[in-house]
Amino acid sequence: MGRRVTIGLPNQDPIFRLDCTLSWFMAKEPIHTGIYPRDKLAGIRPGMPFAKRILELEPSFGTIDLVPCAFGGTSMDDWSHNYTQRNFPSNLYWNLIFRTKAYERTE
């Protein structure tokens, strides 16, 4: 696992997020902030509640790494690898692949 920055409360859950600079920080809502600067709907999503629930059910689970990639108001079709709509800041599918590979490099 890559280096994690643990700035924050000492008793905070071990949940981290990969930010827009591909750096790890303690996760806090909204976890999608800065991923897509034009995303006006970046807000509370299911990632943090899901991670917290895992830790409630299995306290010994360890660290949870979140790699936010969502863009508010998109459909599944928008995430196709050959989707070419110009309304988005970049191709969502390829950004997802890029962020996933960045995560793999930090393990």
TrEMBL record:
Keywords: Hydrolase. Transmembrane segments: none annotated. Residues 13-104 form the Sialate O-acetylesterase domain. This is Sialate O-acetylesterase domain-containing protein. It comes from the Eukaryota. GO terms for molecular function: hydrolase activity. It comes from Trapa incisa.
